[in-house]
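> example.struct
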């Protein structure tokens, strides 16, 4: 795992500044403390920080082809590099290292951009072709590795593995993007392709971007998409019999390394399945790492210990105390832009623990998206059955009225929270899913944002992110929401969270469940094999029944729980008051001071649980504070409410 950065003065033609390039590179030192390098070619400069995993002595980057006309800086791993190298050697290419990176320069020479379809792995890279003075940026199919780029007002281009590599460049304008703020409060993260900055973007998963000197920056090209084409002939038993072999092959590929490889073991189904298959493949005990919590209802550690004992792993466990809130402020610097998934804190801790023992770990991330494990999928499909029976012209007024009349019971079990269900039934399918995943719904956003900020948005709503992807989504309701999560929640939240938390400790995390061939195989399964008889991940659990305890497979799903509501009423109460009622948020002109005061008062009194909103505001306030309370590029900043 590594960090990459670069400057391409494609419009101005100015020579790339080596001092600025080096500063960009060194912001990524944590991603690659083992080595660093850069390459300058007139108006182009590319740089690299290396975490040595494969070919420890010979993988220095930037790496070149034979005549040094093609150079690459690369973050990630290509798991089929040996097969590709053999094919390229057979075609006459000469390799000088054992590094997977070298496959990129020779593969590009041989196949051009068509090389992307041949790569199996997680990657983000920048490839410079001096022959036509073009830069190719590319990101892996599922968005496991990040890649940001910025187009400066004059047309020059910057890129980096993290936003901090771009923002350290003095030429970068730090104006914020209002639409990104709207999206952040809807999703809890800022979905691709936006970033919090007006001039910086995330290259979406499965996309590449080619930029030529002197030419306008074109739109990125979509080189891969996930298609759901169920094979109706597949039976539940046949799929369950085949699944372990398909996943085992993916896990085997992800074990390629010249350093020891361990695994996260949360005690959930996905990480336990990965550990079981690793143990079968490895000749020595697997290092596993788990986090435990004091509250039994949130603690999966006992299940992790059970799997660790079954497979005789070298198990390492660390207990996270209920008052482990020391990361609240540092998290903003870790993610560079507002990021509201509080499970980033225990994720940071488990990465910290794992790095004491290994340099590479495998995780089970992606299992819920791949095999429909989220409970919200079942609720959505049930709502869709009702929506499909009545035209929206009848549903909208009828269920809309019921939603307004029914009392709001946030504290009650979901089955009693009929207001949310009535509201969802009044909506179209995309609105319905947006309603289920939104951190801040439309009524609350109306109260939170000032009229001036809403005017600046010009009617833009964060639901447009889902609508854009829904145009390419399958018709089947379950497959539709899986597809939407593959495009938004998975790369924007889950993979971002793990990438930054792991790289903060110079730890490489690999995700075999998101091997694209395995994901494509799973997308071929009929939806009824994934969600069956009220059970998510049905075929996956059945397939792993001979390898994992029944109690682990068929228990309620847990997550990395953080006691935010309690923290915000006691140890962090003063911090919450200072952030929500202070000048940093207030001076933006985005938020109603009256509503922020209401949030603080109601949460303190225990009448409402506003912890998710408070956490989101805290993370944004930290970003603004770190940047010196930068002024938004917004007329709303001059207006309060």
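> example.seq
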């Amino acid at each position: 795992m590594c960090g990459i950065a670069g400057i391409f003065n494609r419009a101005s033609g100015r020579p790339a500044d080596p001092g600025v390039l080096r500063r960009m590179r060194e912001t990524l030192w944590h991603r690659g403390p083992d080595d660093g390098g850069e390459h300058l070619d007139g108006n182009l400069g590319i740089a690299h920080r290396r975490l040595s995993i494969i070919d420890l002595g010979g993988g220095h980057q930037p790496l070149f082809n034979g005549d040094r006309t093609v150079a690459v800086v690369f973050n990630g791993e290509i798991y089929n590099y040996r097969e590709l190298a053999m094919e390229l050697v057979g075609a006459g290419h000469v390799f000088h290292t054992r590094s997977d990176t070298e496959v990129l320069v020779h593969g590009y020479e041989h196949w051009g951009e068509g090389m992307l379809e041949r790569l199996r792995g997680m990657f983000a890279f920048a490839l410079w072709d001096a022959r036509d003075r073009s830069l190719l940026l590319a990101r892996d199919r599922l968005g496991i590795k990040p890649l940001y780029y910025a187009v400066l007002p004059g047309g020059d281009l910057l890129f980096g593995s993290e936003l901090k590599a771009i923002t350290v460049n003095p030429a970068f304008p730090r104006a914020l993007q209002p639409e990104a703020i709207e999206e952040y409060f809807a999703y809890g993260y800022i979905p691709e392709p936006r970033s919090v900055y007006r001039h910086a973007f995330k290259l979406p998963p499965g996309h590449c971007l080619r930029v030529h000197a002197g030419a306008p920056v074109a739109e990125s090209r979509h080189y891969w998409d996930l298609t759901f084409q169920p094979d109706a002939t597949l039976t539940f038993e046949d799929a369950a019999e085949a699944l372990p072999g398909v996943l085992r092959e993916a896990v085997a590929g992800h074990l390629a390394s010249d350093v020891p490889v361990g695994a996260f073991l949360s005690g959930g189904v996905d990480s336990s399945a990965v550990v079981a298959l690793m143990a079968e493949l490895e000749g020595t005990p697997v290092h596993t790492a788990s986090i435990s919590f004091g509250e039994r209802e949130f603690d999966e550690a006992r299940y992790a210990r059970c799997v660790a004992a079954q497979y005789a792993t070298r198990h390492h466990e660390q207990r996270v105390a209920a008052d482990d809130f020391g990361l609240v402020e540092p998290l903003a610097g870790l993610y560079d832009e507002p990021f509201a998934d509080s499970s980033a804190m225990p994720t940071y801790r488990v990465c910290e623990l794992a790095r004491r023992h290994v340099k590479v770990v495998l995780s089970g991330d992606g299992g819920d998206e791949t095999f429909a494990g989220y409970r919200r999928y079942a609720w959505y499909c049930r709502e869709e059955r009702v929506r499909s029976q009545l035209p929206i012209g009848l549903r909208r007024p009828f269920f809309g009225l019921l939603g307004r009349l029914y009392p709001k019971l946030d504290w009650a079990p979901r089955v009693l929270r009929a207001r949310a269900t009535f509201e969802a039934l009044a909506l179209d399918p995309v609105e319905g899913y947006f309603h289920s995943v939104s951190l801040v719904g439309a009524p609350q956003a109306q109260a939170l944002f000032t009229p001036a900020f809403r005017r600046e948005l010009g009617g833009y709503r964060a639901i447009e992110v889902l609508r854009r992807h829904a145009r390419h989504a399958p018709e089947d309701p379950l497959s539709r929401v899986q597809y939407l999560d593959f495009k938004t929640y998975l790369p924007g939240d889950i993979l971002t969270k793990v990438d930054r938390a792991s790289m903060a400790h110079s730890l490489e995390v690999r995700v075999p469940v998101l091997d694209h061939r395995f994901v494509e195989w799973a997308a071929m399964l009929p939806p009824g094999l994934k969600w069956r008889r009220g059970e998510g991940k049905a075929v996956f659990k059945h397939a792993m029944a001979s390898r994992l305890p029944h109690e682990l497979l068929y228990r309620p799903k847990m997550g990395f729980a953080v006691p935010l509501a309690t923290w915000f009423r006691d140890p962090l109460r003063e911090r919450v008051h200072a952030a929500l009622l202070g000048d940093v948020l207030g001076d933006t002109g985005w938020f109603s001071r009256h509503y922020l005061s209401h949030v603080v008062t109601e949460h303190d009194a225990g009448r409402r649980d506003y912890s998710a909103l408070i956490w989101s505001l805290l993370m944004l306030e930290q970003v603004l504070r770190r940047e010196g309370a930068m002024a938004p590029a917004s007329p709303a900043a001059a207006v309060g409410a």
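> remarks
The chain is about 40% helix and 15% strand.
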